[in-house]
Specification:
The structure is a single chain. The radius of gyration is 16 Å and the shape is globular. It has a domain of about 50 residues. It starts with 17 loop residues before the first helix and ends in a 14-residue tail after the last helix. It contains four helices and no strands. By secondary structure, the chain is mainly α.
Length: about 80
């Protein structure tokens, strides 16, 4: 018997670093879920596996290195 399908409306396109995309592909190979399903599981169940202080530290480190957009503005990819 097949499982229920979770309806996932298209919301946005996401740009990922090569490392992040590689990890997403590895999760796909392990669990057989599409990128959309994988990201949904990761974000909806974030509190199940992410330590709040470590998550805050990861965001703080990212913002320290790359900055953060002003409120209401999106980050713009830099051309190299």
């Amino acid at each position: 018997m097949a499982g229920k399908r979770l309806p996932l409306p298209k919301r946005f396109n996401a740009a990922l670093t090569e490392n992040a995309y590689g990890r997403l592909r590895a999760l796909n190979e392990r669990y057989g879920l599409s990128n959309n399903y994988l990201l949904t599981v990761l974000l909806e169940r974030l509190d199940d596996y992410a330590d709040e202080k470590q998550l805050a530290a990861a965001f703080d480190a990212f913002i320290a290195e790359y900055g953060a957009p002003e409120p209401g503005k999106k980050m713009v990819r830099r051309r190299t």
